Amino acid sequence: xxxxxxxxxxxxxxxxxxxxxxxxxxxxxxxxxxxxxxxxxxxxxxxxxxxxxxxxxxxxxxxxxxxxxxxxxxxxxxxxxxxxxxxxxxxxxxxxxxxxxxxxxxxxxxxxxxxxxxxxxxxxxxxxxxxxxxxxxxxxxxxxxxxxxxxxxxxxxxxxxxxxxxxxxxxxxxxxxxxxxxxxxxxxxxxxxxxxxxxxxxxxxxxxxxxxxxxxxxxxxxxxxxxxxxxxxxxxxxxxxxxxxxxxxxxxxxxxxxxxxxxxxxxxxxxxxxxxxxxxxxxxxxxxxxxxxxxxxxxxxxxxxxxxxxxxxxxxxxxxxxxxxxxxxxxxxxxxxxxxxxxxxxxxxxxxxxxxxxxxxxxxxxxxxxxxxxxxxxxxxxxxxxxxxxxxxxxxxxxxxxxxxxxxxxxxxxxxxxxxxxxxxxxxxxxxxxxxxxxxxxxxxxxxxxxxxxxxxxxxxxxxxxxxxxxxxxxxxxxxxxxxxxxxxxxxxxxxxxxxxxxxxxxxxxxxxxxxxxxxxxxxxxxxxxxxxxxxxxxxxxxxxxxxxxxxxxxxxxxxxxxxxxxxxxxxxxxxxxxxxxxxxxxxxxxxxxxxxxx
Length: 599
Known about the structure:
- By secondary structure, this protein is α+β, with helices and mostly antiparallel strands.
- The chain has 16 helices and 26 strands.
- The strands form 8 sheets. A 7-stranded mixed β-sheet has the order 10-9-11-12-26-25-21.
- Helix 11 (449-459) runs antiparallel to helix 12.
- Residues 286-296, 338-342 and 552-558 have low confidence and may be disordered.
């Protein structure tokens, strides 16, 4: 046996030195690797926000399909390079969806380059879009087709990839949203909006001047397009039973009766989103261009007189708004500005950009874990008092940086805020502040028996004796003192009322802030309504970029943004040419020395 194995070993050793044997093995290995690779599908998404790969939402939606769906994508490939660069990730995502979609999803991708395919795309409702392409010799315009047709049984739907002259931004979410709308029957949204004095308005702006900070029409309209109509809740009346999640935006003047109705809404299992800034300020309107940056001429911000009344209500549930204005000079968002004839972006310390890279988002919570960014404009901060509600779990979803600065009053004019973070008068916080908090669990009522009886007496002043008695009995019989059995409520507080204000839609740069926050708040609403399928896909939106300011050591030399700009300009104007000139003289000197010339 030993002789046999020795013979085999000698034979293999002789072949290992044979060039032909090694070459054949290399070819066979190459073919084998390619066969294995063809059966596998591996991709690495190296983009910052992972926008070119599928999120867990796609896998979840596909696994819940109850009927077969046919998808036909008509995407023209003979387009300019800048358009093709946007279409390639969309095509790659469609190919991934076809692989992971299972047996109920069939996806076909067509390039309508023939008349037959163009006619077929047109019959599906996809119209040709003019696409221009210019070269040194000529300019040509051709018809491009960019749309996706869905068919499920007798129902069909269409997703246009070109909207408003631009290609769709978050394709995966748009695809999944259209797929869910096609295969599921829509129901009531269950979302209510609280209308009272001091809350944000939701009327449609008629001109650019009406795109103000205290109006959220576009957020409501876009949210209703996805989730169904909201219900308007009027102050002074009980919260309708159909409302499951109630939104309050602003710092309203709440009567004791309003507070009681909100208290009962929470105890019956309702969810409350409260977004309010603890301070007041105004933006001076100066025409359409005045709404972009410095043209706003924001005035002095001061703590609201209504804050104490609001906190006396909120703190009974374990959360309160701090009486301060918070600035983030390091995490400042860019704001589009106008200086003369030039469009310029400036850092706005009153607009804070929080992300996972900056370490401000909760990494463990499902909602914030998938968020690219959360931007809090004109914001305050929170204080948690968990001992107020022992059966409620308090979670900080977002916290400030440890370099945040607070003030009780400050000008919010963009020019005046450029020196925040460089002044000796700045008041830095001792530790990060909670900037978004969620309280979930079983709440106790904030109203005692005596307070309810007093409330009944106050409210029955304008009623007859019989009406007053019935009203009192209703309060006593229907009143909840503790959380209703089998229910759980969520109270979410954000110390700013301006995350999705219409004012951000006055120019394309600031609109990115609206889009980032719109994605987060819409995902929040869907999660509270029990539908989290699309959260991961919706949150995959492109964030905003920071504007790098002067380094810290430079601030000690010249504590001024303007000074940094001047030095930077002179550096490029004089210093670089001077360095190049010195380098040229050194080269010339060395060349002369090689030729035998003296210095």
